[in-house]
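PROTEIN DESIGN WORKSHEET
SECTION A - STRUCTURE
LENGTH: 259
TOKENS:
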């Protein structure tokens, strides 16, 4: 073997090794990407866990434990206009930020005034949802909801049971409402009463309602909070928006038909 052939083979081996190594690195980065992104948004994921019943509101969790429990959920993107799941890869799904999308005229659309009961102005085309699985079947779904409160935008989650009609839980994790008054929306004595209430009638029409003092006769009514009626009324409006025809309603109807 002459020197030129020897050098050529050495270069070929080196290039092959480099190529294989790059494939390994790329694969590792691809599979670890959702975990890396989960650590970036650990506080928001902690709120998802509380809503999903995978963590207690008062529980102190290390970031690693938050990420570990969060990965038990099946995070998916939903195209609200098409009322279908988006066939996106795990990296895109994990990195999607609906708040940024809401400010992007390409990634969102205006809400007509008659439909804008949540005072949003516009909404993203896509929203993340978190599926809870049980032996491969759907055990529940966590839906992000938000809207304008008395002083701030309130962000939270509404969780539906496997029938996609019944509320399992609700948790409002971010707001700037009046301390000691509006912030009682985070009091477990109020949020626990959501469990078991029907969000929809059996035919899929919206049933959800937070009642006021004169609404005691309303079936499935969630009680208001004395002194925080403006904040609670705002939550009533924006939850009805997100569960309605302009929000998750058509998507959930499609999901029910497939169940």
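SECTION B - SEQUENCE
RESIDUE ASSIGNMENT:
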């Amino acid at each position: 073997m002459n020197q030129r052939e020897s050098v050529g083979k050495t270069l070929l081996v080196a290039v092959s090794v480099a190529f294989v190594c790059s494939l390994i690195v790329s694969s590792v980065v691809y599979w670890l990407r959702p975990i890396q992104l989960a650590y970036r948004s650990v506080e928001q994921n902690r709120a998802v866990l509380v809503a999903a019943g995978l963590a207690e509101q008062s529980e102190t969790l290390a970031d690693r434990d938050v990420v570990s429990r969060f990965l038990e959920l099946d995070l998916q993107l939903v195209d609200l206009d098409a009322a279908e799941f988006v066939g996106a890869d795990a990296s895109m799904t994990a990195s999607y930020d609906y708040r940024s999308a809401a400010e992007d005229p390409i990634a969102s659309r205006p809400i007509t005034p008659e439909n804008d009961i949540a005072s949003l102005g516009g909404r993203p085309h896509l929203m993340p949802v978190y599926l809870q699985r049980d032996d491969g079947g759907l055990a529940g779904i966590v839906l992000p909801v938000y809207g304008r409160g008395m002083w701030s935008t309130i962000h939270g989650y509404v969780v539906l049971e496997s029938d996609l009609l019944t509320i399992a839980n609700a948790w409002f994790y971010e707001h700037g409402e009046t301390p000691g008054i509006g912030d009682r929306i985070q009091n477990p004595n109020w949020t626990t009463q959501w469990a078991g209430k029907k969000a929809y009638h059996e035919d899929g029409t919206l049933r959800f309602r937070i009642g006021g003092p004169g609404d005691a006769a309303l079936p499935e009514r969630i009680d208001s909070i004395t002194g925080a009626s403006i904040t609670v009324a705002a939550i009533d409006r924006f939850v009805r928006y997100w569960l309605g025809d302009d929000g998750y309603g058509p998507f959930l109807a499609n999901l029910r038909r497939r169940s």
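SECTION C - NOTES
The longest strand covers residues 137-148.
The chain has one domain: 73-258.
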